[in-house]
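agent> fetching stored inputs for the adenine docking request
agent> found them:
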Amino acid sequence: MNFHVLTLFPEMVTSGLNTSIIGRAVENGIITLEAVQIRDYTLDRHKKVDDYTYGGGAGMLMQAQPVYDACKAVQDAITASGRKPARVIFMTPRGHVFNQKMAEEFSKEEDLIFLCGHYEGIDERVLEEVVTDPVSIGDYVLTGGELPAMVAIDCISRLVPGVLSNAESANTESFQNGLLEYPQYSRPEEWMGKKVPEVLLSGHHANVEKWRLEKSLEETLKYRPDLYEKYMAEHPPKPAKKPRRKKVLAKPEDIC
Ligand code: ADE
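agent> prediction call returned; pasting tokens
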């Protein structure tokens, strides 16, 4: 997987992602991360990339030309290497809200371009021209698209085969089944007077799984009732088995 991030703050993206698990995947060549400075593509002799918005209003807007040229340069390099043009994900509070399903879909791509806006946003005309997927990370407004792009890249990367070790990937099912994760415990068995739940020490695999599902359901009901309802609609509880009645043959004297 090759990530290309178009930004005015490339060092923010590289320093944030070149550590820990994603940093290791970059080092191992499983993913590549290219942060492209949009300013390098401006034709303005003062290296300006923003201007006032038509119609008035506070703040500056990123101009179409440098964004378009930066994006085109990246797409041209991708196609020159024999790969198909990449989807262009624009990080914006005006987009579809990012979720695990979208991450799974994006993780199957060979290249992804992330476009990060700053200031008041980006001229609409270039967005119409280059963006395939406007994506938000939630209903709140950040100062720029870099942190949202890093969130999406982290989430997508861990789904790319080889990025997580076996031990790390054992923990991937928790959210993917549509429920929040159950609580987990490590040594010691007792800490600050709090004991690890008995069932987790029992070694009884089926009981542990049952307890984890119950806890997952409890957590989801408490913190995400929307997800709980969806899960219950998709997994209706099995009706309790009726006790089988013995067939009683009528005695001849009962039949009139
Ligand atoms: N840029 C600013 N806020 C954002 C958000 N919530 N999601 C994606 N990009 C953004």
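agent> quick read of the result: Residues 190-234 form one domain.
agent> awaiting further instructions
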